[in-house]
Specification:
Blueprint lengths: L4 H6 L3 E7 L1 H10 L15 H7 L19 H4 L14 E10 L7 E14 L3 E12 L2 E13 L23 E6 L4 H5 L12 H6 L9 H16 L7 E8 L8 E9 L4 E8 L5 E11 L1
Antiparallel strand pairs: 1-3, 2-5, 2-7, 3-4, 4-5, 6-8, 7-10, 8-9, 9-10
Length: 293
Amino acid sequence: MPIDAAKALAAEPRSGEISWTAKDVQLYHLGIGAGAHPDKPSPATDPDELRYTLESRLHVLPSFATVAGAGSPGVISGLSMPGVEVDLARVLHGGQSLEIHRPLPAEGTATATSRIAGVYDKGKAAVLVMRTEVADADGPLWTNDAQIFVRGEGGWGGDRGPSARLEPPTGEPDRVVERPVREDQALLYRLSGDYNPLHADPEFAKLAGFDRPILHGLCTYGITLKAVVDTLLGGDVSRVRAYTTRFAGVVYPGETLRVRMWRQEQDTSVRVAVSVIERGDAAVLADTVVQHS
């Protein structure tokens, strides 16, 4: 079996230094659509967009943590951990959880410690949970969990793991916004470090079972968090405490996302559902929760 669950879970954590600059933050923000807001008459110079793109007033969207210093560490580095030998073409990003311990600085150097925190047998697939904890000289910054879905690697009789499914939100959403995805969005986003050919190479995409390259799930993840922050949190990135989603479907560059948001006053969170308009509101992000102050 290519995945040895016991060996993967017992492996020593890997630690390394990561660093990032304001330029990395700006590039990430551009990769998730900053400066191209569809509802702004002049989005490139709008003050609400400049806080994501202009170094003199730069705020860091917390989802930048998924690429800071290493591109897509949860997925790519998880495949090189002891006990894990799988074909990249069988791999999909199943979900993402992010806990923010304090606001992310626009520039920084930190230590990232990664380990396999879970290996689950889903029958026809395996799910690996790659946990990365990041801290700098002042203490913890964030904890990042990536759920790695590996097709064809289940069935060994292991723990099925917890269910990520939530009861759907009730009632009409508090806000609905639409976010177009540029044709070159994946090409721009991958410059933040996730060079998986699934998002750029048509031939590789076909091997993975897709008609053409698909958008990174983490790009949709970032687009969605920016929409929530801009719409319901007053543009204040520091209010985000945690952000969790399950990747329920794919997005192709050139499509339009519909982002529906429900305020949850009882626990200061926002429930979110994201779909693709052009394919009959096909779900792409589900079980999505933004916890905030």
